[in-house]
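Journal club side-thread
Mid-discussion, someone asked how the predicted structure for our own chain would compare to the paper's figures. Pasting it here so we can look after the session.
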Amino acid sequence: MKRLILALCVIAAPAWAVKPDEILDDPALEARAREISAGLRCLVCRNENIDDSNAELARDLRLLVRERLVAGDSNEETVAYIVDRYGEYVLLNPTAEGANLLLWLAGPLMLGAGLLMGGLYMRRRSTAAEPEARRLSAEEEDRLREILRE
């Protein structure tokens, strides 16, 4: 029974991150706040959205999102405000524009370059002439026989 309770607590822990005093009275605004929060990274927890994080900074970001929505900002304006304030790192799914475009393309470009270099190496190696088999000198043959006798 204790294991079941523990498992339920672990599963439900992220749901407890948003405190009841943070929830907006308007269900439509609260739904928008949850939608925005799902795309914002907790700057303390790294790859966790601010709704799932218990960090104090995540709470501040959740409150900021709700303040902007109550003030009448659209979802895009709210996200833009937070990105202007905290940088693009706060987005869980960063945009593929500007400097980020280089980061998005770096992986596939490096993979392509590696495959190209590997293909060229294999092609050059397959067309290379076999090295000549060199015979042992008489002295080397004598030394080999000595070693094999030991």
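Post-session note: The longest helix spans residues 99-127.
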